[in-house]
Structures are given as C-alpha cells and as structure tokens.
Fold this sequence. Notes:
alpha/beta, seven-stranded mixed sheet
Amino acid sequence: MKQLLWTAHAALFYLFTLAVSSIPENFVPKAGRLAGQFMFHLLAGRRRVAIDNIRQSLRYMQLSPDWTCDLQTPEEIAREVFHNIGTSLVETCRLYQGKGENLLNSIEIRGREHYEAAKAQGKGIILLTGHCGNWELAALAFSHVFNAPMSVVARRQDNPYLNTMVEKMRNRYQNRIIYKDNAMRNMISVIRKNGIIGLLVDQAVFPEEGAMVSFLGRTAWSSKAPVVMARKTGAVILPIFPHREAGRHVITVYPACHFEFIDTDEGMAADVQHYSEYFEHFIIDHPTDWYWVHRRWKRAGEKV
C-alpha cells in the first residue's frame, strides 16, 4: 500500500511540474506572483509565522543603516516573500523539466574575484548560503557559470520515487547530493579532493548541533557545522547569496569568513556569530528574499 501511495505521489508531482513548466517563459513572473498570492491565502499557518517573525525583527532591521526597503508593514513584506516563493516554484518546475537554460544564462554573478581567490588556495571551498532567493536555481547556476561541480547537502525525501526525481534535477550540471545521514564523512572526502560543498545553514538547529547567537535582534541557535568543517579540513568558507533584482537573478559571492578557532564554547559561539552576521546583513538588504516562513528562533525562547 505504501509503495502505491509513493508512486501516486511521485506521479502527481511529475505531472504538476510538467503542467507548470508549460507556462510560456514570458508569463513566468506573472504566474509566479499569482502562485505566491494563492499560497499566501491558502497556507494560513505559514503566513502567520512569517508575519510574526517579520514583526519581531522589523524594528531591528529598520534601525540598520543598510535598510532601504520601502515596504512599511510585516504584512506587506510577508506578501512579497510569498510572491517570491511562488515565482521560485514556477522557475524550479521549469528547471525540473529541462527548460531553465535561458534563466541560468541570464544570472548576474557579483564578487567573482572572491571565488577565484578561494579556488586559488587549493584547500576546497564551502559555499555558505541559506533559503534565499531561488536557492535551487543558485546551486545549478554556480556550477553552470563556473564549470565547477558542487556537492549540495540535503535531506533525503521520505518517498524514494520522489527522491529519485528530485535528485535527477539537482544533479544537473555535474552537481552531486550529499544526504544528511553520514554527511560529515562525505563532506570531508569532497573537501580533501579540493571540491566544493554547498551548505544551507540559516534554519534553527538543536542545541547540541549549534551555538546560541544574536540574530536580527533576538537569540537563535545556529549550526556549528561550517566552523567544525573549516577546523577539520582548512576549507575556505565563502558566503554566497542569491536575490532578485529588477526582474533578474543576482548571485553575490562575499569575501571569505575568517574564524578564530578558539577551542572553547565561547570561541565556537564567536565564530558562529561571525558567519551568522553575513546572513543578517543579507536579510536587512533583501528582506523579501529570505524564507521567513520557518520558525528560525525556536528552542531559543520563542513561543511556538
């Protein structure tokens, strides 16, 4: 019975992506906004989480000299966040069906020199990113632009048939997936071959997996994995964030993180705080491009 359900689920997923990918390319932005508007009203629980998260962080962001957003309320920002999610959904369906070549070719890369400097060190690279812009597109675009295969850390889908379909899309342009079960050993293996790892580390983790940091004016648990990996392998930690700008995608590569590697709990927390500040600055600069719909501050005092 379970296999039958898995098969039906995978078939529906495939048909959905096929139907959405048939939308003419010039209608993708409008279709994406409509999809986002639909999700904004349909996913009431996620909408409330996003609005609450934004409300509790808004004053902190507005006080930053980097704040330039002209949206005034949490509801306005949340609505635009869902529009971006909807657009990413439509774009990703096209990618799944092999129709994303023009999208990939139109992406602007900023900060190429930071990637080239990291590559020249020959120690392997960990690309540090999060659920920003269209993160699925960004992973493919990086490999496509730089001809540099990337191993992306991801959670295995419970449905094996669906997992196979998603894996096929993510493996385009020579990319590979490292699943979270036994991820550390596989990541170290890639780094020791001077490879590239893609890590999404902007969600809440369990206390034993992270360090408590200040994030957008509130305390949050953030992953220790990038610091641990850099310590073990000497890999360069390179923050990289995609966002939407004037109807196109921009991927910005930032200068490498430099950790102190002080072997105490306080030293670890300081290094985790350091890389978390890259995420904070990005969100303040591009508040509608971040995935506000997850409970980023849970287990750190947030009421759930």
